[in-house]
Amino acid sequence: MTDNSTRLDHVVLWVRDPAAAAAFYEDAVGLEPLMVAEYAAGKASFPSVRVNEETILDLAPLPLAEYMNMVPGGTESAGHPVNHVCLSFPEDEFDALHARLEERSVSVSGFSYDASGARGPAKRSFYFRDPDGNVFEARHYE
Question: Where is each VOC domain found (predicted)?
């Protein structure tokens, strides 16, 4: 991949409580929280969590939807269904994520095997929901 290739920068998730969502993604999923203190202090519109060095998930509070007027219909985007977001992990982190979710009584699906993805067939994958109902797939390749 070259430095000029197209990459995923961020995904915005609508959440009821951004600080609680950030805590879930930190504690259960193992992602680094960003701007939580600034959000709590009213200095940022929402916090985020870092997926990797290039990609973050923004955790937008539902009332922010009224300001999403950059395109027609944008204000109605809160709660708009997205099928799922898929995160790929190294195998050991995948297993650790599965264990953390189960420890926290987060419902997880059974494992799927060889599901096709951006890097070909994944060895294993499973699905879970965050506290706001957003569906995630976790997977690992060889």
Answer: 7-141
